[in-house]
C-alpha cells in the first residue's frame, strides 16, 4: 500500500511494461538509468538488429541487460513475431522465459521493415500464445495511412485479431487516440492498453505547432487535445485494463537532429516524477501505485515487486543529455526525484 505525504511518496517498486534498451554501447547506460529511475522491472522490446526471435538470442540479450542494470532490476523479455512463426517456436521462447511476443506491422516504426504485412502470417504463433496465456503486444498502426490517422486505421485489424483469438491476452501499446481508447475500453478484459507519459502530456502541437521539436517526435504521434483527454480519462478511471509502459526509446542526438530524424523519446529518467505530477494535479495520487506497480503485473500474471521505492519532493534539473541522448524534459525543472530503494 502506497504511503503518500506532501513531501514523500513510497510505492511498491514500479514496472515499465514497454521499454527500448537497445544494444551496446548504449545499452549499459540505458539499463542502468532505468534501474536508477526506480523501476524494478521493465519489459524489453525486441526491435534490435537483428531482432530477438529465438531463445538463445533472447537469453544473451537478457544477460547483457542484467549485467548492466545490477541485481535489483529484472528485465522481462519479449520476442518479435515474424511471418510464418510456428507454435513450436513460440513454445521454445515461452520455455526460455518470454513474457510477450511483439507484433510490428511492417514498416510501422524503428527497425520494423521485417514485420508483418497481415496478421494471418503469424496466426499459428498467436494460437499458441493464446493457449499458453502469453501476452500478444501490438504496435497498432497502419503504416500506409496518413501519419495522424495510422492508429485509427489499424483498429479494424485489431478487432479481427481479437475476434479470431477471443482468449488471447492482447495489449494495445502506447495508445494515442480517442478511438483506440474507446475500443480497448469496450473489448473484453483480456484486452488492455499501455499508456506512456508523453501521450498523457503532449499533443501534435508540442511537436509541430511552434519550432519543430525533434526530441518529441515519436510513433504513434501524439494527437489532438481530444485524444489526449480520452487517454487521461481512461487512466483516471483506474480501470485494470490500462497500465504504464513508457515506450522510452533512446536515439543519439545526431539521429534526432538531422534530415531523417528517428522516432522515439527517451523518458526513463523522468517518467516516474512526471507521473507523480500528473496524478497529483488531477487529485488522484491514490491511483498512482496501481498504474505503475500493480495492474501491469496482474495482467501479465506476474507477482508484484516486493521492494519499495520512495520519491521526495525536491526540485532537480533534468540533464541536457544522458550519454549522447537528449531526454524528455531536458534542462527543465522537475518536482520529484527518486530517493532510495528499500527492501
Ligand atoms: O517512437 C517510437 N520509437 N515508437 C516505436 O514504436 C519504436 C520506438 C523505437 O524503437 O525507436
Ligand atoms: Zn516501443
Care to describe what's here?
- The protein is α/β, with parallel strands linked by helices and 343 residues long.
- The protein has a single domain (15-304), classed as Metal-dependent hydrolases (TIM Barrel), CATH 3.20.20.
- It contains twelve helices and twelve strands.
- The protein has helices at 26-36, 55-69, 87-95, 123-132, 150-164, 178-186, 197-201, 204-208, 225-237, 253-256, 271-281, 288-300; strands spanning 3-4, 8-12, 15-19, 41-44, 74-80, 100-103, 135-138, 169-172, 191-195, 242-244, 308-317, 333-342.
- The strands form two sheets. The chain has an eight-stranded parallel sheet, with helices on both faces.
- The longest helix is centred in the N-terminal third of the chain and has 15 residues, at 55-69.
- The chain is globular.
- The two termini are 14 Å apart.
- 48% of the residues are buried.
- The mean pLDDT is 97.
- Bound molecules: (4S)-2,6-dioxohexahydropyrimidine-4-carboxylic acid and zinc ion (ZN).
- Residues 20, 47, 109-110, 139, 218-219, 247, 249, 263-264 line the site of (4S)-2,6-dioxohexahydropyrimidine-4-carboxylic acid (DOR).
How would you state the average pLDDT, rounded?
A: 97
Strand order of the largest sheet: 3-4-5-6-7-8-9-10
**What's the count of strands?**
12
Shape: globular
CATH class: Alpha Beta
Q: How many domains is the backbone divided into?
A: 1
| Annotation field: number of helices | 12
Q: How far apart lie the N and C ends? A: 14 Å
CATH H-level name... which superfamily?
Metal-dependent hydrolases
Amino acid at each position: 500500500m502506497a504511503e503518500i505525504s506532501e513531501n514523500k511518496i513510497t510505492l511498491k517498486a514500479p514496472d515499465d511494461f514497454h521499454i527500448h534498451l537497445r544494444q551496446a554501447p548504449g545499452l549499459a547506460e540505458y539499463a542502468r538509468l532505468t534501474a536508477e529511475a526506480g523501476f524494478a522491472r521493465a519489459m524489453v522490446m525486441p526491435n534490435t538488429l537483428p531482432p530477438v526471435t529465438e531463445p538463445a538470442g533472447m537469453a544473451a540479450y537478457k544477460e547483457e541487460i542484467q549485467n548492466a542494470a545490477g541485481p535489483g532490476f529484472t528485465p522481462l523479455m519479449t520476442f518479435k513475431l515474424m511471418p510464418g512463426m510456428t507454435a513450436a517456436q513460440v513454445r521454445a521462447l515461452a520455455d526460455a522465459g518470454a513474457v510477450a511476443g511483439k507484433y510490428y506491422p511492417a514498416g510501422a516504426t524503428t527497425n520494423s521493415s521485417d514485420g508483418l504485412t497481415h496478421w494471418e502470417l503469424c496466426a499459428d504463433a498467436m494460437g499458441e500464445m493464446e493457449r499458453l496465456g502469453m501476452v500478444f503486444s501490438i504496435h497498432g498502426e497502419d503504416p500506409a495511412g496518413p501519419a495522424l490517422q495510422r492508429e485509427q486505421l489499424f483498429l479494424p485489424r485489431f478487432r479481427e485479431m481479437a475476434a479470431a483469438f477471443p482468449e488471447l491476452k492482447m495489449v494495445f501499446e502506447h495508445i494515442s487516440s480517442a478511438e483506440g481508447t474507446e475500443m480497448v475500453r469496450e473489448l473484453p478484459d483480456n484486452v488492455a492498453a499501455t499508456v506512456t507519459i508523453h501521450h498523457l502530456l503532449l499533443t501534435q502541437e508540442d511537436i509541430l505547432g511552434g519550432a519543430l521539436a525533434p526530441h518529441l517526435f515519436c510513433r504513434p504521434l501524439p494527437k489532438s487535445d481530444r485524444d489526449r483527454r480520452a487517454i487521461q480519462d481512461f487512466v483516471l478511471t483506474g480501470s485494470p485494463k490500462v497500465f504504464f509502459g513508457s515506450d522510452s526509446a533512446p536515439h543519439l542526438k545526431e539521429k534526432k537532429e538531422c534530415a531523417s530524424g528517428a522516432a522515439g523519446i527517451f523518458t526513463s529518467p523522468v517518467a516516474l516524477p512526471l507521473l507523480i505530477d500528473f496524478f497529483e494535479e488531477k487529485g488522484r495520487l491514490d491511483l498512482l501505485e496501481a498504474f505503475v506497480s500493480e495492474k501491469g503485473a496482474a495482467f501479465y500474471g506476474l507477482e508484484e515487486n516486493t521492494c519499495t521505492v520512495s520519491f521526495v519532493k525536491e526540485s532537480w534539473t533534468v540533464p541536457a543529455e544522458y550519454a549522447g541522448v537528449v531526454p524528455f524534459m531536458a534542462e527543465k525543472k522537475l518536482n520529484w526525484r527518486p530517493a532510495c530503494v528499500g527492501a
